[in-house]
Amino acid sequence: MRRTMRWAMLGLLLGGMVACGGDAAGGSGGDTGGDTGGDTAGADVAEGVDAAGGDDTAGTPDVPTDPAGPGGLIYDEAGWQAAIPKEGQTWTYRVSGIDVHAVFTRTDSTLGAPMALVSGGNFDAAGHQIIGMRAWIDLSTPWRMSVPRIEMYQNAASATEPSFTYTYDPPLTLQLDLQVGETTTFDYTCTMTFPSGDPITSHEIVEWELLDGDATVVVPYGTVEGCLHFRARTSFPDEGADANLDSEFWYHPAIGPIKDTDKGFELVSFGE
Asked: What is the rounded CA–CA span in Å between residue 171 and residue 189?
């Protein structure tokens, strides 16, 4: 139960690590439908018309490209800065049939060093009714998303007192600039703390592999082309092989996380 919830919420917080987008449909021309054509030509300029001449419903924002890279991406500092969302960017993901909304704060200093913050939930609810999460993400290294801390709120009484907190040492990291077939492994300790009682600590190892640099996937948002398709293998050395998890993950550099097979999260919309 503890591990299942953490990975479901990881999918949501990764939704915050996306490129500058437009309205809820993914365009900047004020349309509201999904990208039914799967076009990746450019951001909308008006009513679903792509700047690059596409005829799809919504359009997809541009990112710098290079035919030599996976999915035609340029993995440099300029490309990474272009892929960081703007202040107030929002996303909706469908997790187990429930639509969950999140918002991006570009700079937050709660943990000391400035980091991005992704938060989702009803933090204005009265009484013991607050349900949500907050995740801090270090974006200082190009094409790395590193998560040192996630706060979870389950029927909490205060927006400043989480029900429990996950802390990762070193931070939980997704590396985006892999070549097709390349793998990278992250070994870390996760500590789960509560307002009272003893913490719970687990040793976790995640191996990421890039399966495809130009994949297409269909989600409630629409047909999305040009995705990075990853496989993640997670093992828990202290718990035995039966606890291991395998999942597949689609990420679009101009949209963000699109889909995860493990907990079934899918992109529904993103906007401002």
From this structure: 9
pLDDT digits (tens, 9 = 90+) for 101-137: 889 899 999 999 899 999 988 888 877 789 888 999 9
The greatest distance separating any two alpha carbons of the chain, rounded to the nearest whole angstrom, comes to 59
Q: Residue 35: beta bridge partners? A: 222
Return the closest-CA partner of residue 143 out of 66, 77, 228: 77
Report phi then psi at 60, rounded to 5.
-130, 135
Lookup: tokens for 155 = 């029927």
Q: What tokens does 214 get?
A: 């130009």
Decide: pTM greater than 0.85: no
Q: 81: which 2 tokens?
A: 């800065």
* Distance (Å) of CA 227 to CA 16, 90, 210, 215: 16, 20, 11, 5
Q: Quickly list DSSP for 10-62.
A: HHHHHTTS-----STBS-SSS--S-BTT---S--EEETTEETT----SS----
- Using CA atoms, how far apart are residues 7 and 29, in angstroms rounded to an integer? 34
CB 220 within 8 A of CB 212: no
